[in-house]
Design brief:
mainly alpha, Farnesyl Diphosphate Synthase, two-stranded antiparallel ribbon, 15 helices, 2 strands, globular
């Protein structure tokens, strides 16, 4: 049994109920759209965000239909952002599957992303889940700001550590934060508890993104190309740390590689070698573990049940995963 299947054990039947809810929510009478939706369901990932919703709900109450809608809302939003990201990044593969834009071109991919967003909005509005909609709509806003801030800074390559945290808080942590908050809100938890869950999710999301950024410096088979951040001139934590530590000449050389030679394998290998030698990888791992410890400190204040145990395992998995 894989690690993710083991974590899903306390919510196995709930995952099936969520999948049914999700499939129903994306149905369309337009044949082309229905075909694309079936493909999206077929290539589903680990479903970590719906798991955060379901486990967070279970910690504080009884998982119910509103919880399934909340998990579907999060997954609809997440899928929409992935479809749009692949268009923005000109990416033709994701986790071993062809992307929507690779199979159906950009115009259809953009409209599919829009459709998924609209279905999420309607799922919440039609059922009066306005508190869930507010949490998720805020996440969409913050995610867009995070992505645009990253693009703006990539032009000048002037990202420092504080700006980096601001970017990943927006583009990744906000969605995991909203998944945990939606779970708690779906079972009628207090506003104080919802805010605590949001804090937990944000902390996990920060660790999750640093882990993702570290994959860019590995040669492992992670289901998507490595060194893509370097090619896209994305300044991630290992590189930011390195540029702060090296002498002026080395810094100039590294920035020149990022700006002008980011597709030259030899030059990229040289850059990675400097990052490793300077301690950029170790520093990023240290920061990731600090966020992980903070998440565990919050978790220790929760009621002890099978769901809080599952949540602890899921959080551990986010920083120990190998892809």
């Amino acid at each position: 049994m894989s690690k993710i299947n083991s974590i899903q054990k306390p919510i196995q039947s709930e995952i099936i109920a969520f999948e049914d809810c999700f499939k129903q929510s994306i149905k369309s009478k337009v044949a082309l759209l229905d075909l694309v939706m079936k493909y999206i369901v077929k290539r589903k990932g680990k479903q970590m965000r719906p798991m955060f919703v379901l486990l967070s709900a279970g910690v504080w109450g009884t998982i119910n239909d509103k919880t399934y809608r909340g998990a579907s809302l999060i997954e609809l939003l997440h899928t929409a952002t992935l479809v749009h990201d692949d268009v923005v990044d000109d990416s033709y593969q994701r986790r071993g599957f062809w992307s929507i834009n690779a199979l159906w071109k950009n115009k259809i991919a953009v409209l599919v992303g829009d459709y998924l967003l609209s279905k999420g909005l309607l799922l919440a509005v039609d059922n009066g889940d306005f508190n869930l909609l507010q949490i998720v709509s805020n996440a969409v806003k913050v995610m867009s700001e995070g992505e645009l801030l990253q693009m703006e800074k990539a032009r000048k390559l002037d990202i420092d550590e504080a700006v980096y945290y601001e970017i990943i808080r927006g583009k990744t942590a906000s969605l995991i934060a909203s998944a945990c908050a939606v779970g708690a809100a779906s079972v009628g938890a207090s506003q104080e508890t919802i805010e605590l869950m949001k804090e937990l999710g944000e902390t996990v999301g920060m660790a999750f993104q640093i882990k993702d950024d570290l994959f860019d410096y590995s040669e492992a088979d992670i289901g998507k190309p490595t060194h893509i951040d370097i090619k896209e001139k994305k300044m991630t934590l290992p590189l930011i740390y390195t540029l702060q530590k090296v002498d002026r000449t080395t810094k100039k050389r590294l920035i020149n590689i990022i700006k002008n030679h980011n597709e030259d394998k030899k030059k990229v290998a040289e850059l990675i070698s400097v990052v490793v030698q300077t301690g950029g990888i170790s520093y990023a791992e240290k920061k990731m573990n600090e966020y992980y410890q903070r998440a565990n400190t919050i978790l220790d204040t929760f009621p002890s049940n099978q769901y809080s145990v599952g949540l602890k395992e899921l959080i551990k998995y986010t920083i120990e995963r190998e892809k």
